[in-house]
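Recap slide: Xylulose kinase, sequence and predicted structure.
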Amino acid sequence: MYLGLDLGTSGLRALLVDGGGAPVASLSESYATTHPHPGWSEQDPAVWVAAVDRVLSRMAAERPGDMAQIKGIGVSGHMHGAVCLDDVGTVVRPCILWNDTRSHAEAARLDDAPQVRALSGNIVFPGFTAPKLVWMAAHEPETFARVATVVLPAGYMNFHLTGETFADMSDSAGTSWLDTGARDWSGPLLSAGGMRREQMPRLIEGSEVGGTLRRNLAERWGMRGDVAVVGGAGDNAASACGVGAMREGEGFVSLGTSGVLLTGRDGYAPKPESAVHTFCHAVPGQWYQMGVILAATDSLNWLSRVTGAPPAELSKELGETISGPARLRFLPYLSGERTPHNDARIRGGFLNIEQATDRRAMTQAVMEGVAFALGDCARALGQTGADLHSMLAIGGGAASHFWVETIATVLGVPLDLPEAGDFGAALGAARLAMVGCGAGTVEEIMVRPGVRATVEPVIALAGTYAEAFAAYRATYPAIRDLS
């Protein structure tokens, strides 16, 4: 048996898989995020520790025989968060999360520093880890002085499980401290951010064993013998492992809280100015690239809150099939935007509201706005030479055929819907544990799921959606200075 832990922004999920990689059991535990000030987003790592204990204690009670057979654990985590430890491993302040924008000025300064883009392969976004520490140095100097080690959320869970500080390449590539091409911490990048190499965790590949589960935890959760803990992965790389998006052109559209358009790459081909993320993959010798929008299903959830109608009800009003773009236009910049704008200040809105505008029209505009934002991501990925030829649609939003068909038509690419099953980050983490424990090779274990249906672009409507997309793209420069 193998265990995958997915440490998400809103909760922790544990997935147990058998020796062939088939899911056996899954349990989850939710937790909250705090927002002490506008633009701030924090979590106390103690809530993650409590969540994993509750989940695995329940699993031990419900499936003691399976838990006794666990050989390896992999952890996936939300990226970029700064967990700061002192010299005895105590957390010195709440974790500053990926969607925290307080360090936008520090990010801009780092991004302008010599060699930063060239070495990291990426723009320094406000959500990345390095600018958070620069902000701490300026605004919380006494706390910053106590920082002996900085780990990411998945790395902190690894530390809790094993007592050792290690991190995988895919997660570390989102810090702005890693030389992404060389897959190693960079002296110049660390120096630019006021950090030292000895403050960094040990780097390993995601499929490499980093430590052994603490004996007291193994006994508490009913695990026998030595249980290996592998490097794990950042959440998007873990999701790629879960759906077999490992090589050139293999990728997915993820409609989750944020939106992701991701493809595997066989080589290192950064283009920072496109605002595409170029990160190490979770396995040796591979990279991946993705465009990221900050509000995908979060945009529909926002509309749900203001209308009082559940997201599923809003979606149902649209039916299954598209008939052409709405005149009403929605800009999904509810928390700023990453690809392609790298703009933490921009905010969303509706354009062309009129007397006849109703809830249905607003729902369609929201879905189209997200689709157009993903179209922006596709254009940016195309600038790097990425070929989006084999794409899955995953995430909660993929349950809407209308939404997936809209995206397929905007991108001009068929989107495959996987067979019913579990193909998320928790599965990818478990697969990394399998590889690390010798259950098979990356090629044998990181396989693509079966396809239950393919959603084709509606060719007859491609022209009208292209016109609407062009109008959408013209809107950002027109409103940028109005926010």
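The radius of gyration is 22 Å.
The domain at 245-418+450-483 is CATH 3.30.420.40 (Nucleotidyltransferase; domain 5).
(End of recap.)
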